[in-house]
Specification:
- The structure holds 3 protein chains of 3 kinds.
- By secondary structure, chain A is an alpha+beta fold.
- Chain A has 6 helices and 13 strands.
- Chain A has 2 domains: 2-14 and 179-331, Aldehyde oxidase/xanthine dehydrogenase, molybdopterin binding domain (Aldehyde Oxidoreductase, domain 4), CATH 3.30.365.10; 19-162, Aldehyde Oxidoreductase, domain 4 (2-Layer Sandwich), CATH 3.30.365.10.
- In chain A, the strands form 4 sheets. In chain A, strands 1-9-10-13 form a 4-stranded mixed β-sheet. Chain A has a 4-stranded mixed β-sheet with strand order 4-3-2-8. A 3-stranded antiparallel β-sheet of chain A has the order 5-6-7.
- The longest helix of chain A is centred in the first third of the chain and has 28 residues, at 89-116.
- Chain B folds into 2 domains: 4-79, Roll (Ubiquitin-like (UB roll)), CATH 3.10.20.30; 88-157, Orthogonal Bundle (DNA polymerase, domain 1), CATH 1.10.150.
- Chain B contains 5 helices and 5 strands, in the order ββαβββαααα.
- In chain B, α2 (88-95) crosses α5.
- Chain B is globular and about 50 Å long.
- The relative contact order of chain B is 0.16.
- Chain C folds into 2 domains: 30-127 and 189-273, Aldehyde Oxidoreductase, domain 3 (Alpha-Beta Complex); 144-181 and 276-416, Aldehyde Oxidoreductase, domain 4 (2-Layer Sandwich).
- Chain C has 12 helices and 15 strands.
- In chain C, β10, α6 and β11 (227-231) form a beta-alpha-beta unit.
- In chain C, α6 (209-220) crosses α7 (247-257) and α9 runs parallel beside α10.
- Chain C is globular.
- The relative contact order of chain C is 0.15.
- The interface between A and B is medium-sized, with 24 and 28 residues.
- Chain B: This is Purine hydroxylase delta subunit apoprotein.
- Chain B: One of its GO terms (molecular function) is oxidoreductase activity.
């Protein structure tokens, strides 16, 4: 028999790490043709940090995404990036990138203010133009500005680093501020449990994540979807079997991960709470994407068959065993 | 062991090569033919990273021997855009954001290509089944499936 | 006034997408250089032993072998580790897990390198291995490192947990267990190192090239600016490519041979040696008033970090700090102990212990809801963190707490889908 169940779960996740110094840096140069070289330590492992940094730099400098070339994660060229872990890079390297661009922009603004005869505070950098926000006719193209920079022998260079504002936790009580900001999420899943085979099938996932601000919404969704797959593995599929210190299943034929056929319909929802400390309000989503689906599956299985599992993964054997106990209890044998 | 002569077509070009017949097709393509888009992920035919199209079917090249491809036709990812234009699948993988780390991408695109070669208008489940031998740890497959469906729609419109 | 954004928020095409869909992206295993050698690692097949002798003479004599190195060939520090430097690059005396690196080889072909490994004779004396938490903390158990097998014990204290429980009308108590998990990124670790003009360059699949630079420099006793670490396109990580993998071994072989050395792990080597998710056992007691207000939570956590600390200490802290979930609980007490064993090394894995504790806070909420005969969403909403609320570390939250919106959006999406299904 197929029994359906629904479960919900929430999570929070600190971004900008654990009461320890945690910096990352960026270098930027705006070239004479208004193209931009950005050098960040941040290692892109496929999640898309290089794209995120380019979007942040383009936004801050007022150029196009295509204008920004990113060199990342080369210790001879780029400053310290720290680890690509702990969902920290959008927040920390993103802030570093923004600060580097602000420094370059300061020089650019000095020259633009001189040329346009307006105060620096009134200048706006947008869409490859620099203009007086009170008089949109008073403007320079980026190329014109770079020409003026060249005449004066000025270079548009910037460097920036960001270290989150945290405090060391008290060694006895762990009181303090371990993270600068927190990401949040709520996830609801629908499962079907086959009471004959013990198989749990994930049918639907709705997952809403407060990411502060989505620098690139499609990439945020992609993190949520990938997290749902990995979380499904965590909840009902994956386990390293160790016997006498030896891993018995170090290969894909024995350590199963979800395939395309295991995937439910996923509805990612992006919530933007605008984190004051984040670059353009962004927090982080890499790990939050994984977390809430795991307890949500456990709760949905409970909704379906009335058993809360306290040990993961929940295998078909576990389901059959628990249903058997339930039946025995019902019959009054146990 | 003695080398044998094999004749095969790779990405539309005909070749003759002397090979040890027990060399894996994966190694042959990567090391002898320079097809570096063919990736090794598991060495046991489970992950699909080394997928190529062999005589119109998606196969894992780590579980095939060079001797087996004599007289056959192979397509690797390099062959999809060798006329300077992206295949509709490559275009839709980019546009749908179906690529993260990229290690499964060559095999994934080729499994999709083999599907669309035989069945240009697959159902959602046919798409999922066609790539079920290609493991991806990043994306949850959602945008990959979408990209393949988008490519199929584009082909239908042409 | 909020600034209008023109690039941030746009679904631009990723910078690396074109190269990846055309197969032009170069991963570490795709690198080739003139005169390049292939590196391989001899690894321990026993979990706990003391090495008595390593005889590499037969391996050295094999044609095509250019270098066979052991611990005594390391010029600088023979230890790596993200937080604690407790893992030898090559074992000098003590084997602490299956997979510990004992010797490395560089040869002209992969096959020769593998053959050379089989010609190395290691004599060792096995010692009692420790595989369980309980054995690890016993007084008479052998110490895996230093003078104790306890990696860390930490305590979190917030409010008065005893007084908190006294105000509770219902208390639930459960033990949660999670398994060791493997990252299984699709690209196994790989890298290539060169030594030219006094400079070591490492190209590798990594999540932290700057950390790798520091570890290689310390191993070589080089200034850090004489080591260049370049991240190649990396085929997934999820925390499993934060530890040193091939970087130190390839660098040491390149330094000794003056030739480029490439090292590519096979899947089984990757899965045996890379860090794993910490298996954890968490016992939790949580209490609430009959109105559903959470008053107290008491937790003990046990974790096994295996043979080396890796990111273990960070996992402990994160797990503890997040243990309440996104709920306000005024009285919290958490005790956590992680131990060393001779099991595979556990380290960073997407979430650093938070997925494990999420099972606990969400399981406890469901259990309390049942006891209180309340809807579990309603119970969550009563206790939800909100702007200005205080966490269990005493931190005051800012204005950016979007959880309530997340819950309401999920519920309205559910309604929308149910509506459609009902049509």
């Amino acid at each position: 028999m197929i029994r359906q169940g629904k479960g919900i779960a929430c999570m929070w996740y600190g971004v900008g790490n654990t009461g320890l110094p945690n910096p990352a840096g960026a270098f930027v140069e705006v070239l004479s043709d208004a193209s931009v070289n950005l050098m960040v330590g941040c290692a892109d492992i496929g999640q898309g940090s290089t794209t995120v940094m380019a979007q942040i730099a383009a936004e801050e400098l007022g150029v196009r995404y295509e204008d920004v070339n990113v060199t990342s994660a080369d210790s001879a060229v780029t400053p310290e990036g720290g680890a690509t872990s702990a969902s920290r890079q959008t927040f920390i390297s993103g802030n570093a990138t923004k600060k580097a661009c602000q420094m370059a922009k300061q020089t650019l603004a000095e020259v633009a203010a001189e040329v346009l005869q307006v105060s620096r505070e009134r200048l706006k950098f947008e869409n490859r133009q620099i203009y007086d926000m009170d008089n949109l006719e008073c403007k320079l193209s980026y190329r014109e500005l770079m020409g003026e920079m060249a005449k004066r022998g000025r270079l548009a260079l910037g460097q920036g680093y960001y270290n989150p504002n945290t405090t060391m936790l008290d060694p006895d009580t762990m009181q303090g501020s371990p993270f600068e900001i927190y990401s949040y999420a709520a996830t609801m899943v629908t499962v079907e449990v086959n009471t004959d085979t013990g198989r749990i099938e994930l049918k639907e996932v709705i997952s809403a994540h407060d990411v502060g601000r989505a620098i690139n919404k499609r990439m945020v969704e992609a993190q949520i979807e990938g997290g749902c797959a990995m979380g499904q593995g965590f909840a009902i599929l994956e386990k390293v079997i160790v016997e006498n210190g030896k891993i018995l299943n170090p290969q894909f034929s024995k350590y199963l991960i979800p395939t395309a056929l295991d995937m439910p319909d996923i509805y990612p929802i992006v919530v933007e709470s605008n984190a004051q400390a984040g670059p353009f309000g962004a927090k982080g989503v890499g790990e939050p994407a994984l977390i809430p689906i795991i307890p949500a599956i456990v709760n949905a299985v409970e909704d379906a068959i009335g058993v809360h599992f306290y040990e993961l993964p929940i295998t078909p054997t576990d389901v059959i065993r628990e249903l058997y106990h339930q039946q025995k209890l019902y019959e009054g044998i146990e | 062991m003695k080398k044998i002569m094999i004749r095969f077509t790779l990405n539309g070009e005909k070749y003759e090569r002397e090979v040890f017949p027990n060399m894996r097709v994966l190694d042959f393509l990567r090391n002898e033919m320079g097809m570096r888009s063919v990736k090794e992920g598991c060495s046991e035919g489970e992950c699909g990273a080394c997928t190529v199209i062999y005589n119109g079917r998606a196969v894992t090249s780590c579980t095939m021997l060079a001797g087996q491809i004599d007289g056959g036709e192979i397509i690797t990812l390099e062959g999809l855009s060798n006329k300077g234009e992206l295949d509709v699948l490559q275009q839709s993988f980019m546009e749908e954001g179906a690529v993260q780390c990229g290690y499964c991408t060559p095999g994934m695109i080729l499994s999709a290509k083999a599907l669309l070669m035989h069945n240009p208008t697959p159902t959602h489940d046919e798409v999922r089944r066609a790539i079920s031998g290609n493991l991806c740890r990043c994306t949850g497959y959602v945008k990959i499936v979408k990209a393949i469906e988008m490519a199929s729609q584009k082909i239908a419109q042409e | 006034m909020e600034k209008k954004l023109s690039v941030v928020g746009k679904n631009v095409i990723k910078k690396d997408a074109f190269e990846k869909v055309t197969g032009k992206t170069v991963f570490s295993a795709d690198l080739d250089m003139e005169d390049m050698l292939y590196g391989a690692v001899l690894r321990s097949t026993v979990p706990a032993a003391v090495i008595k002798n390593i005889d590499t003479s037969k391996a050295r004599a094999l044609e095509g072998v250019e270098s066979v190195l052991t611990a005594k060939n390391i010029p600088g520090r023979n230890a790596v580790g993200i937080i604690l430097k407790d893992e030898p690059i090559l074992v000098e005396d003590k084997i602490r897990r299956i997979g510990d690196a004992i010797a490395i080889v560089a040869a002209k072909t992969e096959e020769t390198a593998q053959e050379a490994l089989s010609l190395i004779d290691v004599t060792y004396e096995e010692i009692e291995p420790i595989f369980t938490f309980d054995r690890a903390i016993q007084e008479d158990s052998p110490n895996i490192h230093g003078i104790t097998n306890v990696l860390q014990t930490k305590h979190l204290r917030h409010g008065d947990v005893r007084a908190g429980f006294e105000k509770c009308d219902v208390i639930v108590e459960h033990t949660y267990k999670t398994s060791m998990l493997s990252h299984m990124f699709i690209e196994p670790e790989a890298g290539l190192a060169t030594y030219e003009n006094g400079m070591i360059t490492i190209y590798s699949s990594t999540q932290n090239p700057h950390f790798d630079r520091g570890e290689v420099a310390a191993m070589m006793a080089f200034p850090q600016n004489k080591v260049r670490s370049v991240q190649m396109t990396t085929g997934g990580g999820f925390g499993g490519k934060l530890d040193i993998s091939v970087q130190c071994h390839a660098a040491l072989l390149a330094y000794n041979t003056k030739k480029p050395v490439k090292m590519v792990r096979k899947r089984t080597e990757s899965a045996m040696v890379s860090s794993k998710r910490h298996p954890m056992t968490i016992h939790a007691r949580t209490g609430a008033t009959k109105e559903g207000k959470l008053m107290a939570m008491e937790v003990t956590m046990r974790g096994d970090t295996g043979a080396y600390a890796s990111y273990g200490p960070a996992v402990i802290t994160r797990a503890m700090v997040h243990c309440t979930g996104p709920y306000v609980i005024p009285n919290v007490s958490i005790d956590a102990t992680f131990v060393y064993t001779n099991n595979p090394m556990a380290g960073a894995f997407r979430g650093f212990g938070v997925p494990q504790v999420a099972l606990v806070h969400e399981g406890q909420i469901e259990a309390l809801a049942k006891e209180l005969s309340m809807d579990s969403v309603a119970l969550r909403l009563i206790n939800l963190q909100h702007p200005g609320a205080e966490t269990s570390t005493g931190q005051k939250l800012g204005s950016d707490v979007g959880l309530e919106t997340c819950i309401s959006q999920v519920l309205s999406k559910r309604k929308e889908l149910d509506g459609k299904e009902g049509d």
